[in-house]
Fold this sequence. Notes:
Blueprint: H1 3-24, E1 28-33, H2 41-53, E2 63-68, H3 76-85, E3 90-94, H4 97-106, E4 112-116, E5 136-140, H5 147-157, E6 163-168, H6 175-188, E7 192-197, H7 201-213, E8 218-221, H8 225-229, H9 231-240, E9 245-247, H10 251-254, E10 259-263, H11 265-280, E11 291-292, E12 296-301, H12 302-308, H13 314-319, E13 322-324
Parallel strand pairs: 1-2, 1-3, 3-4, 4-5, 5-11, 6-7, 6-8, 8-9, 9-10, 12-13
Antiparallel strand pairs: 10-12
Amino acid sequence: MRRRDFILASGATVAWPLVARAAAAVPVIGYLSARSPDESKHLVAAFRAGLQTVGYVEGQNVELRYRWAEGQYDRLPALAAGLVQEKVAVLVATGGEPSALAAKAATSTIPIVFTVGGDPVKVGLVASLNRPGGNATGVSLLTTAPEAKRLGLLHQVVPNAAVIGALINPNYLGAEEQSQEVREAARALDLHIEIARAGSEQDLEPALAALVQRHVTALLVTADPFFDTRRKQIVALVAQLNLPTMYQFRDYPVVGGLMSYGISIVDGYHQVGVYAGQVLKGAKPADLPVYQSIKFEFVINLKTAKALGIDIPPTLLALADEVIE
């Protein structure tokens, strides 16, 4: 071999490991969710947008590995453990407390950025909201807190509904607390509340049918990630039963639900992306305060109201942040 050819060949041999090392240097974020990929596209887009504000673009300088439990909470521990074994740089746990707790149980060293519906201090994810401590921080979406407010708004829309139903997922961590809050709110409004529980797709139709048999004429679907993954099915079922229904997120009225009251979930997921990017840049979760979303949305689908034969009071229309026609 000529000396020039040897030098070129040697240079090529050295270059390949350098390319491999450069590729390996791209940080990897593990994205764990209790939800489903198809119905979460807008949330993933918000998360990516948050990442981008900190300078990270998927496919360019960061890799995302997605794991979806699709509403089956018992799958989360194994999915979280798998991402930990892959040594991701950050573990993003979305879709509520089940994902966050599975991530927390899987690692005490990899940084975690979570979304939860309630109080992360109460469930043991962080030491405090301002100084989380440990390896986790994130966003509290305050999804469970407004159940009483939702019931009150529903009562204003259907004031003659003496019996209102509440759909609760018994597998959700805050289910008993939700049940108690809804009962107390119903007593304050002098309403009779009937609670049905559904923890799987097969439970939904029988649970709703049982409420109708108990003379329920309006429905509150409580905050729960599993219900979010089945929102089209739930909206279709309550339409067949002619039940005016209140939900937690705008996503429900968009697909035909009557109305919703809750935080802007898109805003929350955007902040998760921001935090994940900041952690990649060296910030410690222990020093990032838990973000509490304060952007609430009251959304009414006027087309659905007309189909149900309901006249929305003008005062409520004036309060609505969005009216879908």
